[in-house]
Amino acid sequence: MPTREELAATVRTVISDVLGTEPDALQERTSLADDYGVDSLELMEIGARLERTLHLRIDPDDLLSARDVGHAVDLLHARAADPATAAPGSRPAGAVIDLVPAPEGSA
């Protein structure tokens, strides 16, 4: 499992690739909607790239709920650290991003 810092670097890189910006321009409190005007299609592209990169499935509806880059990283890190909460149907109340291992051969 990647450290939070490694995961944050990966998330910033993926987002910057989609937005055409530099990873360093994305800070913990960067709001993709407010600061970059990210629409749902761009957010789905970010989610799809994160799925491929991290080999995890991210529920698109839940991805929309992340407040900012740091919140998304925290949620991804918590899910990656606890496989029991990543299983379908086992998402605890208040969870925002539901991650489950991607099917073999889907990456």
From TrEMBL:
Pfam families: PP-binding (PF00550). Keywords: Phosphopantetheine, Phosphoprotein. Residues 5-80 form the Carrier domain. SUPFAM superfamilies: ACP-like. The keyword Phosphoprotein applies. Signal peptide: none annotated. It comes from the Bacteria. This is Acyl carrier protein. It comes from Kitasatospora cineracea. The lineage of its organism: Bacteria, Bacillati, Actinomycetota, Actinomycetes, Kitasatosporales.
